[in-house]
Every structure is written in C-alpha cells, then in structure tokens.
C-alpha cells in the first residue's frame, strides 16, 4: 500500500478550479516532486495535504486513513514553508522544540531530540540564536530541522529554495538529497524550477491547470515527454508541426511541415494521416559545416539565423526551410573559440531517428 | 544654487522646530521662576512644586486621572487588541467603521453625544450618573480605535504563514494564537496600551463634557486654573506631566521602536 | 474547521463591537433624534411623545432646524469657523512643507530623530500647549513687548495679541502642525529622486522642478494632511475658549454653550449635526480628490 494516496481530488476557489481531479500515490521513502508553473495547483494540493485547505471532493489517504476531516495539528505531516515561517520571538532551539512541546514530550526527551536534529542540520552551535541573526541558508536548515524533529510520516516542502541565491541553492539541493536518504522520511516537494525537480526527485508529477500532465521518473519526464506542455515546460525544446506518413514497426515516417519527411520512433496511437508535433531537444541535434546524410538520421541544409552566446554553450537558431527554425546547441569545448558559426553561415543539421518524440497532444 | 536652497530649507525647518519647542521650554522655565507673573525671570525656586504638592484639589484630580488612565488603558487595550486582530483576519464592515470614526470626527461631537446619552440613561434607568465612571467609559470608547490601529499594523507586519506553521507543527488554533500571534504582536499591544494611557490622562474635551459637576481630573483642574487665575503652579504641573509623557515615550520606544510612528 | 473559524470571528469582533455600539453608535443616534425634539422645561429634552386618550402622540419638531435657517448669525458663525480652520490648514501647509521635505531628504539615520522631534510636542498635554501660548502672547511677555515696540515705533497704537483671532490661529496651528508634517513626510519620502534628476536633465530649473514634479506628486500628502488638520480644527472649542476673545468664538464654543450652559440640547444637537455634515462633506471631498489623484497617477 502506498504511503500517500490522492484520489480524484478537486478544489475550487469561487469559479476557479485550482485542483481538477488529481489522483496519484506516493510510496514510503520517496522524494516526490510536484512541478509546474505558478497557478497550476501544486501549492493548493500541498496545502490540502497539510490540512490548510479541504478538498471539495475526492480523498486524501495517509497510511490508508482518510485525512479530510483531520485538522493540520493532528496530521503526522509537516511543512517547510517557502519563507521558512520561523517564529521570530523564539530561539532556534525553541523553534525546533515547538512540535515536541505541542505533542507533550517530557523536557529531557525534548532536549535530547532537539540536540540530535540540530546536529543533523549542522547547527549545534546556533541553538541560542534568534532567526533574524541567521543567514538564509541557516534559517532554511532550522525550518527543516523543526519539521523533521518529531519524525513525521510525510514532509512537505513548498519551494523551500526559492529565496536563496543560485550558488547556495545548488549546495542545499545536495544537502536535501542526503538528508532525505539519511532520515528516510517521504518528501513531497513543490517547485516551479524544472532543474531542481530533475536533480532532486525520484519521481515527478508535472502539473498544469490543476491537472497532472505526466507522472514519471526524471529521465522520462525530460527524455520522453508525454505532450507538448511537458516538452515545452521542461528544458528547451523544438516543437515541429507534422503529420504521420507511414508506420513501420518500431519506426514511422512523419512529414514535417515545410521541411519534408523524417524518420522517428513509432508511438502508441499512431495512424497514417494523424497530425502532431515532433519534440526535439536542442542538444540532441548535430550541427556542422558538413554532415553525412545517413539512413537513420534526419538531415537538412540550412543557414544560421541567430546566435546566442551563453558562455558554456552557444545556441544557434538554424533556418532549415522558409520560416522553419530549429534551435540547436553546441558546447564551447575548444579553447580560444567562442563561436563556431556566424549569422547567415551555410550549415547542415541532423538528428538520429530516436532523438525526438512525436506527440499527438 | 543647491547650497542656497538647502540653507533656506534649514532656516525654515529650524524655525519650525523652535516654534514647536519654545513654548514648552518657556512653561518649564517659568515653573522654576520666583515670581507670580509669567513675565520675566526673577530667581530660581521650587515653591510652585511645593505648593502643588500641598494642593489637595490638584492631588485628588491627579489621582482620579491616574486611576481612569490605568483602567481606560487596560480596557481599551483588551477591546482594541481584539478589534485590531479581527480587522486584520476577517473582512468586516461595521467594526472598522465603528473603530475608526471616533478618531476621525472632532472630539467635541463624541463629547456631546455621550453626555446626552449618559444623562438620558440616568433618567430612564437610574444608572451611569455623570462622574468618574462615565469619564472612563468615554475614554475607552475613543481609545479603542488607537489601540486597534497599532495592533492591526503589527498584525499586517506579521507573516501569516507563522500561524499556519504553528498549526502544521501541532498547535491548536488557540495554542497558535497564544504561543505565536500574541507574542509577535506584543510590542504593538504594549505601544497601544501606552498610547491609550497618554490619551486618557491628557484628554480634556471629552472629559469636560462627560465629567458632570463633581468629578475632576487633572486636565479639568488645569483648565479651571487657566480660566480663573493663572499661577505658576500650572507651569509646575505642566512640567511634571511633560516629564511623565517623556518617560512613557522612552518606554514605548524601548518596547517597540517603530510604534511611535504608527500613530498618525 | 469552518465552525471554529466563525467562532473565532465572533469571539474577536463581538466584544469591541458591542462596546462601540453601546458607547458610540447609540449615543450618536440619540443625538440625531434629539435634534427633532423640544427642549425640556429645565434644560435637556422634553419627552418624545405623550399619551392622549390612550393614543401615542409624537411630539417632534423641525423648529430647531428652522432657527438655523432663519437666523443668519449661526450660518455666519459656521462659515467663520470654516475660515479659521481653512486658514489654520493653509499656515500648516506652509510651515510643514519645507520641514517635511528636509526630513524626507535627510540621511536615514537622522530621519527618525527629526520625526520624533515633530511628534514629541503632540504627546504633551493639549491644555499645556495652549497655555504656553497664553504666556507668550500675554500682555507682559517679552514677545508681545517686542512686537509692540516695533509696532508703536511705526506709529501705530499698541496691539493686544492674547484673546484675539490671531491667538486662536496661532494656537490651532501649533496644536495641529504634526498632523500636516507626518502625511507630507510619508508622501515626500516615497518620491523617486531620479524623477528630479530626469527633469533637470531635460532642462527644468529648480523652480520648475518643484512646481511640475514635486508639488503635483505631493498633493495626496497635502490632502491627507489637510483633512487631518481641517476636521479637528473645525470642531475646536478649547482653543478659542482659552486663547480667543468674545469676537473669536467658533461653532464648537456655541455647541458647548448650548449643551452645558443654556442646556438647550435640541439646538445643540442641530448644531452638532451641522458640524458632522461639514466634517463628512470634507472627508468625502478629500477621498474623492484622493481617488482622482490616484487615477491620474
């Protein structure tokens, strides 16, 4: 039995449907991420798990028990808030001890447990400080220690890294992964940052407009997006309009509008004449002055339309046919060379038949 | 050009400060002046303070003022804190109107309506005869608003997720209020209480209407001294009152450095 | 959860609500009704109705309102009060503007002290502040003597300062000045200084920069301050009572006299209603202008 099961949950605010018939389950020990743009319903879903909102219909089961009538303070679920929500009038120790006091623990047991948690997050020396005397990263760790101190069944994290700067964020990502491994508590993590989701999670649910668009492991979310929204939202992606020409076992031929026929992997539900889009990651596309035209590869001649120098890589927008632009990317891995091509250079692009995915929705 | 401008700005600003402070300084200086007239400096004396401390009427009035101010401050802090929290947490219509109007309209109108009200209630029910108690009731009515504003401002400065965090970590709604909301807004509550105390002990207009014949407070006593016979005793009592206010302000600024600005 | 929420709402809002209904709303309503009643034989109010042949006969009147319309002296007094309040407001603007500007442009660390110095006198007793001006404007004071030395030197009769309209205006400005400085400061402090730099860059001189940029942007602060000064000034009775003479009384003095001295409550109530109407009118005007200002901004 899954630790957490969400069944057909719906939540409306006035005439806006924040969460629209979501069902998913989270296994014990999992690092599970709800990923989506702002307004997609991920935070509302999280707040329902915490108990701050009640679903209009549907069920939330924790260890098989329906949680809908249980108030937040009675749930074995804690939240790490986006702004940490540390109590400003309490020291770090008092903050971390709060859940234990609420649960009525004995004083010596509280002390021992708080010590242990402060050690876990490497804040032993800071127990007597107040939140405003700590840095952003330290406050973050206090918030996590406070939420983990009484070993909840489930830890909810609401964009916990969004207030940190880029460098610290990467550090904290590693720390979160290690901490989760160490304590073995199930994490449900909410973020709009796809990079964070891919780096941290065991599984990701991509949400939009209150619904789950795709639920899968990170590799599949990125490499095998189910629809145009997921392809577009996760990373950079070329989306080329086309129709199916022929299906031939594992592969099929599609006619890309304005370019011509290319070979691609066959997908379920494919039928001749069915329109769709070819989703293609820029880094999977080869780009050079001259490329061989191989049978297993799509091959086009084109010219450089635009270049974007990003430092580690350069993005080249290639016009392969009138009005059809393909984004490609080359790492700047040759010392002393900043750019391989300039605007209007004649180039050739190619990609293997299994580099892209043909999507019907 | 810019230099000249700022010189003029400074001159006008300093004259405004002088305009604000010179009168108060004069009152204090003349309270030590050994002359019955507030005209020119004759010599140093404490005799006006001495006379003041032997003036039974004045002392009684001061006692009344203090009692009323303490009680009004406690009561209006209770009501005002509830109102401030409620106004922040819920979308209310009537309460904000009732809380803010007594502050916005001239005190005179509050005084007039209250004296008519108290006398009528007294005629019909035989309770609430004009006196110290009606003064207290009136003071609470106009102090609630000031406390509510300060407390509400403090609530607005408080992160809403703190209460949610407390609930999330196992606190009941009541525990969350007691352990998180109340301590966080405490500086606002204390500032509000001090403000109510000062407003009550200083109030003249509403007190003047609702006091009736017998009751006297310090401002009423000062008023009759000013109207009938000005003696430097008024200067002495004024100086002491200023000292008291100053002490309260120092306390307030210690408790919550930003509270002093929240009162406009 | 929902029930708990509603319970919390009632527990929080009902105690202050009940108190203010009892000691603010009901008294105000009674005052309004009193305006339509006859004065009692010994002051106060006559009964609202009497019972004749077992039927209730209401004993209400519009006489009190007629008196205001028929005798121009009351309307004149009202206008005079508005004039005093208006003059007070104007002087407050003139005095507060440079100060507020200076505070807003000072270094952050000095600002709090400068503001505190503006507010501090406001916290001392109201009567004491008025009394201080009795000393300063009194006939024997150094200030009066200096003024009269200049005045008689120019060949005029010596002046009396205390118990004149001048003293009343000085007192009212003194008491209300902080209420003008604070909102003006709050407004000026938010001004984006780069606007002035931009205007200068585009060729505006200091005077043009003030009139075309700073002044229009500070109007919301001016309106807020004006409302905070004008409204209490309009209903003032203590300052004219102490610093003014018989020729410088205001509507507040008349109301006080009707309620406490002659005890003609119905007429006092009518005058109070007039004052309330004036105050509400100013407040409505203020919020209207403020809203217009926001739209333009």
What does this entry look like structurally?
The complex is a heterotrimer of chains A (361), B (264) and C (297). Chain A is an alpha+beta fold. Chain A folds into two domains: 4-231, 3-Layer(aba) Sandwich (Rossmann fold), CATH 3.40.50; 236-359, Nucleic acid-binding proteins (OB fold (Dihydrolipoamide Acetyltransferase, E2P)). Chain A has eight helices and 20 strands. Chain A has helices spanning 42-50, 92-102, 107-120, 136-148, 166-183, 194-200, 218-223, 228-233; strands spanning 4-13, 16-26, 31-35, 57-62, 65-66, 77-80, 154-158, 186-191, 203-208, 211-216, 238-248, 251-256, 260-265, 275-280, 286-288, 297-309, 313-321, 324-331, 346-352, 356-359. In chain A, a hairpin with a 2-residue loop joins strand 1 (4-13) and strand 2. The radius of gyration of chain A is 25 Å and the shape is elongated. Chain B is globular and about 70 Å long. Chain B has 264 residues and is mainly α. Chain C has twelve helices and two strands. In chain C, helix 3 (72-105) crosses helix 7 (165-190), helix 4 runs antiparallel to helix 7 (165-190) and helix 8 packs antiparallel against helix 9. Chain C has a two-stranded antiparallel sheet. Chain C is an all-alpha fold and 297 residues long. Chain C is globular. Chains in contact: A-B, B-C. Chains B and C meet through helix 1, helix 3, helix 4, helix 5 and helix 6 of B and helix 1, helix 3, helix 4, helix 5 and helix 7 of C.
Q: What is the CATH H-level superfamily of chain C? A: MetI-like
CATH 2nd-level architecture of chain C = Orthogonal Bundle
Compute the average pLDDT of chain B: 89
The named CATH superfamily of chain B: MetI-like
- Which percent band covers the strand fraction of chain B? under 5%
Helix content of chain B: over 70%
Radius of gyration of chain C: 25 Å
Overall geometry of chain C: globular
Write down the CATH topology of chain B: MetI-like fold
In short:
The complex is a heterotrimer of chains A (361), B (264) and C (297). Chain A is an alpha+beta fold.
Question: How is the topology of this model organized?
Answer:
The complex is a heterotrimer of chains A (361), B (264) and C (297).
Chain A: E1 4-13, E2 16-26, E3 31-35, H1 42-50, E4 57-62, E5 65-66, E6 77-80, H2 92-102, H3 107-120, H4 136-148, E7 154-158, H5 166-183, E8 186-191, H6 194-200, E9 203-208, E10 211-216, H7 218-223, H8 228-233, E11 238-248, E12 251-256, E13 260-265, E14 275-280, E15 286-288, E16 297-309, E17 313-321, E18 324-331, E19 346-352, E20 356-359
Parallel strand pairs in A: 3-8, 3-9, 6-7, 7-8
Antiparallel strand pairs in A: 1-2, 1-4, 4-5, 9-10, 11-12, 11-14, 12-13, 14-20, 15-19, 16-17, 16-19, 17-18
Helix pairs in contact in A: 2-3, 2-4, 3-4
Chain B: H1 2-30, H2 47-53, H3 56-89, H4 94-104, H5 107-125, H6 132-157, H7 161-168, H8 173-202, H9 205-210, H10 218-228, H11 232-255
Chain C: H1 2-34, E1 49-52, E2 55-58, H2 63-70, H3 72-105, H4 108-123, H5 126-137, H6 142-153, H7 165-190, H8 193-201, H9 206-234, H10 238-243, H11 251-261, H12 265-296
Antiparallel strand pairs in C: 1-2
Helix pairs in contact in C: 1-12, 2-12, 3-7, 3-9, 4-7, 5-7, 7-9, 8-9, 9-12, 11-12
Enzyme class (chain A): translocase
InterPro entries (chain A): AAA+_ATPase, ABC_SmlMolc_Importer, ABC_transporter-like_ATP-bd, ABC_transporter-like_CS, Mo/tungstate-bd_C_term_dom, P-loop_NTPase, PotA-like, PotA_ATP-bd
Protein name (chain A): Spermidine/putrescine import ATP-binding protein PotA
């Amino acid at each position: 039995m899954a630790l957490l099961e969400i069944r057909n949950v719906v939540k409306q605010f006035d005439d806006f449907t924040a969460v629209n018939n979501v069902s998913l389950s989270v296994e014990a020990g999992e690092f599970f991420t709800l990923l989506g743009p702002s307004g997609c319903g991920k935070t509302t879903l999280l707040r329902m798990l915490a108990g701050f909102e009640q679903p209009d219909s549907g069920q939330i089961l924790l260890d098989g028990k329906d949680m809908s009538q249980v108030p937040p303070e009675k749930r074995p679920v804690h939240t790490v808030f986006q702004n940490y929500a540390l109590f400003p009038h309490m020291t770090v120790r008092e903050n971390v001890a709060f859940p234990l006091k609420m649960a009525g623990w004995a004083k010596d047991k509280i002390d021992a447990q708080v010590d242990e948690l402060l050690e876990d997050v490497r804040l032993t020396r800071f127990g007597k400080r107040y939140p405003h005397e700590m840095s952003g990263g330290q406050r973050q760790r206090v918030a996590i220690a406070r939420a983990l101190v009484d070993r909840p069944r489930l830890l909810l994290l609401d964009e916990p890294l969004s207030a940190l700067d880029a460098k610290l964020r990467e550090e904290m990502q590693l720390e979160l992964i290690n901490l989760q491994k160490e304590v073995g508590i199930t994490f449900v993590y909410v973020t709009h940052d796809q990079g964070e989701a891919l780096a941290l999670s065991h599984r990701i649910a991509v949400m939009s407009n209150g619904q789950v668009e795709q639920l899968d492991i990170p590799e599949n979310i990125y490499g095998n997006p189910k629809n145009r929204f997921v392809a577009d939202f996760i990373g950079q992606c070329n989306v080329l309009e086309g129709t199916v020409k022929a299906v031939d076992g594992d592969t099929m031929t599609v006619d890309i509008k304005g370019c011509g026929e290319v070979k691609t992997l066959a997908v379920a539900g494919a039928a001749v004449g069915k329109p769709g889009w070819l989703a293609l990651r820029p880094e999977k596309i080869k780009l050079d002055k001259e490329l061989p035209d191989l049978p297993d590869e799509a091959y086009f001649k084109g010219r450089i339309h635009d270049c974007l120098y990003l430092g580690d890589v350069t993005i080249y927008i290639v016009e392969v046919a009138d009005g059809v632009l393909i984004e490609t990317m080359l790492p700047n891995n040759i010392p002393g060379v900043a750019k391989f091509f300039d605007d209007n250079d004649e180039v050739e692009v190619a990609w293997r038949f299994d580099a892209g995915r043909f999507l019907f929705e | 050009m810019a230099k000249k401008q700022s010189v003029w700005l400074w001159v006008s600003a300093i004259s405004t400060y002088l305009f604000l402070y010179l009168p108060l300084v004069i009152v204090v200086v003349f309270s030590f002046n050994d002359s019955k007239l507030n005209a020119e400096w004759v010599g140093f004396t404490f005799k006006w303070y001495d006379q003041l401390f032997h003036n039974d009427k004045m002392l009684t009035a001061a006692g009344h003022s203090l009692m009323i101010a303490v009680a009004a401050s406690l009561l209006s802090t209770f009501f005002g804190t509830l109102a401030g929290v409620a106004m922040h947490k819920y979308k209310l219509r009537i309460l904000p109107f009732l809380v803010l109007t007594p502050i916005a309209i001239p005190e005179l109108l509050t005084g007039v309506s209250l004296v008519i009200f108290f006398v009528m209630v007294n005629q019909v029910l035989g309770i609430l005869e004009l006196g110290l108690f009606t003064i207290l009731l009136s003071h609470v009515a106009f102090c609630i608003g000031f406390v509510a504003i300060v407390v509400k401002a403090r609530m607005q400065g408080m992160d809403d997720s703190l209460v949610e965090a407390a609930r999330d970590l196992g606190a009941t709604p009541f525990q969350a209020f007691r352990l998180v909301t109340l301590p966080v807004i405490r500086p606002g509550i204390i500032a509000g209480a001090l403000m109510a105390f000062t407003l009550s002990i200083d109030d003249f207009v509403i007190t003047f209407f609702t006091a009736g014949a017998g009751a006297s407070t310090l401002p009423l006593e000062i008023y009759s001294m000013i109207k009938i016979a000005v003696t430097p005793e008024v200067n002495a009592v004024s100086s002491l009152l200023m000292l008291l206010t100053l002490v309260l302000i120092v306390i307030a600024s210690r408790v919550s450095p930003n509270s002093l600005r929240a009162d406009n | 959860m929902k029930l708990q929420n509603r319970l919390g709402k009632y527990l929080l809002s009902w105690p202050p609500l009940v108190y203010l209904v009892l000691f603010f709303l009901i008294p105000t309503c009674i005052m309004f009704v009193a305006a339509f009643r006859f004065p009692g034989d010994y002051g106060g109010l006559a009964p609202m109705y009497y019972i004749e042949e077992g039927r209730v006969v209401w004993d209400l009147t519009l006489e009190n309102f007629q008196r205001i319309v028929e005798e121009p002296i009351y309307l004149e007094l009202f206008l005079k009060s508005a004039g005093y309040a208006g003059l007070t407001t104007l002087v407050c603007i003139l005095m507060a503007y440079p100060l507020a500007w200076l505070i807003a442009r000072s270094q952050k660390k000095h600002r709090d002290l400068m503001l505190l110095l503006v507010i501090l006198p406001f916290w001392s007793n109201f009567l004491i502040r008025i009394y201080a001006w009795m000393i300063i404007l009194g006939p024997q004071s150094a200030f009066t003597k200096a003024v009269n030395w200049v005045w008689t030197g120019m060949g005029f009769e010596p002046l009396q300062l205390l118990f004149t309209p001048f003293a009343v205006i000085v007192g009212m400005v003194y008491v209300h000045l902080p209420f003008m400085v604070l909102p003006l400061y709050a407004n000026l402090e938010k001004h984006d200084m780069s606007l002035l730099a931009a205007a200068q860059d585009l060729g505006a001189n200091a005077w043009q920069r003030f009139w075309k940029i700073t002044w229009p942007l500070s109007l919301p602060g001016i309106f807020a301050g004006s409302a905070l000064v004008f409204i209490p000034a309009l209903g003032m009775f203590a300052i004219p009572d102490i610093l003014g003479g018989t020729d410088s009384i205001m509507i507040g003095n008349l109301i006080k006299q009707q309620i406490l001295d002659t005890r003609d409550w119905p007429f006092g109530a009518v005058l109070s209603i007039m004052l309330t109407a004036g105050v509400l009118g100013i407040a409505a005007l203020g919020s209207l202008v403020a809203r217009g200002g926001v739209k333009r901004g």
